[in-house]
Amino acid sequence: MSTAQGFLFFLLLLGVAAAGLRLLSRTTPTVPYPVLLAVGGVLIGLVPGLRLPAIGSDLILLAFVPGLVFEASLSLNLAELRRRILPIGLLATAGVFLTVVLVGVLTHLFLGLDWAGAFLLGAIVAATDPIAIVGLLRQLRAPQGLEALLDGESLFNDGTGVAVFAAVLGTIAAGHPSVLDASVRFVLVTAGGTGIGLVVGLAGLVLVRLVKEAELEILTTLVVAYGSYLAADLVHASGVVAVVVAGLVVARHVQGTQLHGFWNLLAFLLNAILFLVVGIVMPAQRLVAVAGLVLGAYLIMLVARAVAVYGLLGAFPSIPWSWRHLTLWGGLRGGLSVALALSVASYPTVPVLAYGMVLLSLVVQGGLLLPVADLLRLRARPVD
User: Fold this and answer.
1) Residue 235 φ/ψ, nearest 5 degrees
2) pLDDT digits 0-9 by tens, 83-107
3) In percent, how much of the chain has pLDDT > 70?
4) Residue 121 placed within a domain
5) What residue numbers bound the domain in which 277 lies?
6) Which of 153, 175, 355, 383 has the fewest CB atoms within 10 Å of its CB?
7) 150 in a domain, yes or no?
8) Is residue 94 part of a domain?
9) Mean pLDDT of the chain
């Protein structure tokens, strides 16, 4: 089988698996579709003799993340986002930094990771993943304010999380890691991504207003989503921040039914393939060998999440406690963390731990998200 045939076979395998798991999800309404996809990917990766193409971090980041993040930006409830902008902003900035520090310090003290590897692990898993949570939120049908809080936080801290990771990795690679150096790098990559996102988003908005044709609007927004990411990536700024900003600029003025229908379909396809890919690239056999470390790191991540959520949201008494509990439990990690882990080759233990933390996050938190929402009486109506 040639390389091209092997790649086509891989895509067909993913398509068949995604369709089959979608049908299965209808018979198991309490188990979210992304969870089934991740587990299905792990099982595919364990099939003996099955040769799968190499999947690198660049492929995951460039092929999947811009489209999914852009669609999430278009789907944001902007009115609710403005009402909740302060808690969202705190969780997406201070919450990310708190998580990096707590995961870094605690994994160094209790799991024996060296300081550089510990903080790198913290940066990989610091941000919740909009790719993981958006689909679950649509199943949840929670109050709009809570949905905006979870959705907005996961979208914005996606950008800040990647920027923090780039800053931490850069300062480690420079040979003189320091908080000041990482902070300067963070500001530079974030500011660069924001500027590029604004420019590309405004240019796309002008084109959308000029064309007034559904097909060209779709094409223009595709160029905006992937072009903003690529432009920022080429100058070593944050591509994810650029996509978020560009998406928000366009979302204020684009309300076409066909446009949203296209992006919903594209997001469904990308989401299905991504979660299968995430499962496939996870080294399941290596995870078993370090299961104790993975469990310890996952519990540390939950503790860090709890400190960030309850500590920061304590400044907002209007946010109900039930919302805070679900914000804690809904802090899923997903494909983005796996992509970042794949890019770290010099610390072999770190990617394996990160894979395991992502898998536990998806299976444990994702698998129990709907029952937890029911327990907290936060689901408007049962899933169809």
Assistant:
1) -105, 15
2) 999 999 999 999 999 999 999 999 9
3) 93
4) yes
5) 56-375
6) 175
7) yes
8) yes
9) 86
